[in-house]
Amino acid sequence: MTDTTRRPADPRWLALVVLCAGMLMIVLDQTIVNVALPAIQTDLGFSQAGLAWIVNAYLIAFGGLLLLAGRLGDLIGHKRVFVLGLVVFTVASLLCGLATAPELLIGARFVQGVGGALSTAVTLGMIVRMFPEPGEQAKAIGVFSFVAAAGASIGLLLGGVLTQVLTWHWIFFVNIPIGVAAVLLATRLIPAKPGIGLGGGADVVGAVLITASVMLGVYTIVKAETHGWGSAHTLVLGAVAVALLVGFVVRQAKAVNPLLPLRVFRSRNVAGANGAQILLVAGMFGMFFLGTLYMQLVLGYDALQIGLAFLPIAVSIGALSVGFSARLNARFGEPRVLLVGMGLILVGLLVFVRAPVDGHYVEHLLPVMLPLGIGFGMSFPALMTLAMSGATPDDAGLASGLVNTTAQVGGALGLAVLATTSTSRTTALLAEGVPTPEALTSGFHLAFGISAALVALAVVVAVTVIRPIPATAEAPRPVVVH
What is the membrane topology noted in the UniProt record heading this document (predicted)? Predict the structure, then answer.
């Protein structure tokens, strides 16, 4: 007789649930904030350029610390770093929700970015170690990627609901029960693996240089609206930011244990995929930010309507991430799928450039959201696979961290440029006596046009640098960023 005794649940899958819960909280926060920006602006008195710092403060800390956080996981243990990140993120969420002034919210968002970097940087490594068998590993990463996409979808809608029904403070308070539960479960369910020890070195100097470069660069761009692009203030600070970046590169070439070994860029696909991604994300973060303001300030949408307006993008990404994009990559090859996806994104942005003052959703916004959503869903999995395909097994974790880093840094820099140029155009037109709706719309059009130009440059990089993955290449499993 067949033994029908029920076997205990595999604890690895319970641990995966905890990792997914942590990722859900972080992804949820990244999208939920966009929808609530108009309400935050009204309540705390942010300027339009200053409002960008609610997003930038998070992105700078997140992107600047990802590589260092991943290395710390190797040194002191991935579980320890993951739990520490959850604690920091949860406490910072409470502080964000309690903020009563712009400076307090921006500071708390920076701390949130630190926590998000700590947790995100080590998650993929833990999944790969828990599921070494290729079939199980593919399934585990598929579940993880789907949760990330679902978090983006939920965040857009939930942000509108919470802001409309309660207040914007609750978009941060919602993280607290998730974070507390994730910390308690993580301490019990995630297996602990000792790190290699702090003697391995963490390249703190490199982390300080790259983080300072990004922070100063974004600050310089945002302040260019006040001081002027050709002013001594802008030129001197910009030169310092570039010098810090050069110092980081020199440090990586000479350090015994560099934060980012330069050898990874010998692969055309690693270099090309990251170059294309930084341009693509630079355009897209600004589009979401300014698209939200266009709908609120020009079209008069409330928070819930804004969340619903963006929903086709999130649903499209989620639907493609379930497995359809992987089948497209297998059938046609990642470079072709990437080009089609970025082409759709470019079309969506060019349509957005023509959005009028009295725009209607079905006629003017839905034709933007659908190609953007499908384009994202096709482009990012292809980019992830290409970026990882050129990495050696020893550099797989590093390549994954690099992909996350270029996405976050690209978002921070792109948002700073687009928000600043849009505000400058609007301010100039208002000074000429142009009515406010028309002045705002013109500023948004300029930003959307710059976004389209950035995506077009990403297409050029993809065409000239990226090459098909050889049939014999065994690409490490990528982490999908949304």
Answer: Multi-pass membrane protein
Q: Is a pLDDT exceeding 90 seen at residue 415?
A: no
Spatial CA neighbour of 127 closest among 477, 396, 401, 481: 477
- Contact between 71 and 259 under an 8 Å Cβ cutoff? The reply is yes
Report d(CA 18, CA 352) in Å as an integer. Answer: 39
Q: Residue written as tokens 């692969």? A: 267
Q: How many residues does the chain have?
A: 482
Tell me the DSSP string of 383-443.
HHHHHHHTS-GGGHHHHHHHHHHHHHHHHHHHHHHHHHHHHHHHHHHHHTT--HHHHHHHH
CATH 2.60.40.1180 fits 10-201, yes or no: no
**Over residues 332-351, mean pLDDT:** 90
Per-domain residue ranges for the chain?
A: 10-201, 203-258, 265-476
What average pLDDT does the chain have?
78
Query: Is the domain 265-476 a CATH 1.20.1250.20 member?
Result: yes
Angle made by CA atoms 67, 70, 72, in degrees to the nearest 5: 110
Phi and psi at residue 225, in whole multiples of 5°?
-60, -35
pLDDT band with cut points at 50, 70 and 90 for residue 478: very low
